[in-house]
Amino acid sequence: MSIGRRDFLKASAIATTATAFAPGINLIELAAARNPEQAATAIHRWGLLIDVNKCVKGCTACVDACFIENGINEKGSPTTDAQWIRKVTTKDKATGHEQIFPVMCQHCEHPPCVDVCPTGASFKRKDGIVLVDKHICIGCRYCMMACPYKARSFVHQTLTGQNHNAPRGKGTVESCTLCVHKIDRGDGITACADACAGENHKAIIFGDLKDPRSEISRQLKAQASSQIRADFNLNTGVRYRGLS
Questions:
Q1: Residue 12 domain-assigned?
Q2: What is the pLDDT of residues 110-134, one digit of tens each?
Q3: What pLDDT does residue 52 have?
Q4: For position 167, which CATH number holds?
């Protein structure tokens, strides 16, 4: 009996990656109890609107909140630091004008990371959220090379002190999940947007791009916005206002 390469990789990945996760977290049981596909529906498409003009230099509230929410605590090692969200500074060489804004997984409608994944570990939910299935991720890092936003990172080290709502695994790739656990339980906001609002900056708006009544849809209709590298035609779920 012959078996295709894709099926072989899926089978072997399930067998070999299950032991890579932190002790005490049984991800197979967790996945069976809360399958993300069951919570997703094409009625919604979740996204973010980031107002670059409201993003404050030196503020790391969104980054800090993301790390706390998802149990990311391995700061200080540039080769292994998680890049779920990061602050980026751009500068116009002609004028010296600087812009500072957060960048994370853009949750593309046509995600390159999904296209190149050999096992199907990178996938897009019906509601537009792009995720990584740690059970079948083999750590090939093709998705990292394919992502034009450098939004994914590889877990090199053994992890401790994980949050139960965001299980992570050594030897796998990870990125912003748009706080999928908060969406599925009905919180209605991501950790980064909540933290930004808490600082009264209100530079990040989370919501349903398909709901014309949502705040994000009203804002997008009222004023112009843009996508990072719109020329790739990926139709990102993260939009920016004031980005030049």
A1: no
A2: 999 999 999 999 999 999 999 999 9
A3: 97
A4: 3.30.70.20
Rounded Cα distance, 69 and 205, in Å:
18
Q: What whole-number distance in Å separates Cα of residue 130 and Cα of residue 106?
A: 9
pLDDT at residue 32, as a whole number: 40
Most confident of 10-24, 70-84, 183-197: 183-197
Position 84 in a domain: yes
Backbone phi, psi, residue 74, to 5° = -95, 55
Average pLDDT, the chain: 86
CA atoms of 58 and 184, how far apart (whole Å): 32
**Helical (H) or strand (E) element with 27:** helix 27-33
Q: Is 122:132 a contact under the CB 8 Å cutoff?
A: yes
Q: Is the dihedral of CA 209, 211, 216, 220 positive or negative?
A: positive
Which residues neighbour 185 within 8 Å (Cβ) at sequence distance 6 or greater?
A: none
Q: Per-residue pLDDT for 14 more than 60?
A: no
Q: Name the domain count of the chain.
A: 1
Domain of 214 in residue numbering reads as: 24-241
Q: Is the per-residue pLDDT at 3 higher than 60?
A: no
The number of angstroms, rounded, from the C-alpha of 83 to the middle of its chain's C-alpha atoms is 9
Question: What is the structure's pLDDT at 165?
Answer: 85
Tell me whether residue 18 is in a domain: no
Going by the DSSP 8-state scheme, the letter that residue 131 receives in this structure is E
Coil/strand/helix, residue 50: strand
100 in a structural domain: yes
> In this structure, which long-range contacts are made by residues 108-112, counting pairs with CB atoms below 8 Å and at least 24 apart in sequence?
108/234, 108/235, 108/236, 108/237, 109/234, 109/235, 109/236, 109/237, 110/233, 110/234, 110/235, 111/234, 112/143, 112/146, 112/147, 112/148, 112/234
